[in-house]
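FAQ: What does a ligand-bound record look like?

Like this one, built around adenosine-5'-diphosphate:
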Amino acid sequence: MMGTTAAAVPWGRLMPEAGREAARIVDSACVRLWLGEVAARLEAERDFLTQLDAAIGDADHGVNMHRGFTAVMARVSAVEEATPGQLLRVAGRTFVSTVGGAAGPLYGTAFLAAGGALGDTERFGPRVLLDALRASLEGVQRVGAASVGDKTMVDALSPALDAYELELRVGGSLETAVNGAREAAVAGMRATIPLQARKGRASYLGPRSVGHQDPGATSTALMFAALEQAVIADRSQRFAAGARRPVSGS
Ligand code: ADP
Ligand code: MG
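The answer part, i.e. the structure of the complex:
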C-alpha cells in the first residue's frame, strides 16, 4: 500500500536534515554543549587572545573572556531547567556583570539579544537560529557602532551570518550552515590583519594597528568554531540516544 513507506522506515525520525525547516533541532542541550565548548576553547586560547590584545590593545582580552565564560558556566550549570533563550540571557547578564572593557558589554548584549529573540521556545530550527544571530549582530552594532572593516568582532560576525544565511538559501542544513559560518568567521578574522582599527582601543594606535589580527574578531571566530563543534556533537549524541530525544518538535 502506498503511503506507509515513510512510516515503515524506522530511522526516518532521526534525519531532520532532510530540508524541512519544521525540524526543530536546536534545544537547551545543544546550547549547553555550545557554551561548554566556548568555555573550553577560551581556556585553551586565553594566552593567545591576550597576546593579540597586547599588540594593539591592553593585553586583557583573553583574561576578560576567560573570566566571563568561567562565570557563565558556573551560573548556567546551576540552572537545571531552562529554555535556550533563558540560558543565553543568563549568559548575557553574567557577561555584562563580570567582564569590563569593551568586550563585556558587547558580548553581553549579543547573548542577551539572541536570548531575547528566541523568547521561551524550547526547540527550533536553523532559520530561527539565524534570526537570533542577526539580533546579536544588531545588538553589537547598536552598542559599539562598528561596521565591517573597522577591525572589530563585527568583521568576523557579519560575514559569518551572511555565509550561514546563504547556505540555508541554497538548501543547506544546520550542519552546513554552521560550517559555512565558521569558515567565513575565520576568513573575516584573518582579513582584520591588514586593516587599520577605527573602533575601540586599537583605533588609538592609528596606522600602527595595521598588521595585527583583531582579538575580538578572533574570539568571535572561536565561538563559531565551537558552534559547529557543538552541532556535530549534539547530532552524534542524538543518534547514540536513539529515539530517547526527539529531533522534531513539530
Ligand atoms: P578593551 O578593548 O576594553 O580592553 P577587550 O580587550 O576585552 O576590551 O576587547 C577588545 C575587542 O573588542 C577588540 O579586539 C574588538 O574586536 C572589540 N571592540 C572594541 N570596540 C568595539 C566596537 N565599538 N564594536 C565592536 N567591537 C569592538
Ligand atoms: Mg583589551
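Follow-up question: can I read anything off the structure? Yes, for example: Residues 53, 57-58, 60-61, 101, 201 surround magnesium ion (ligand 2) (CB under 6 Å).
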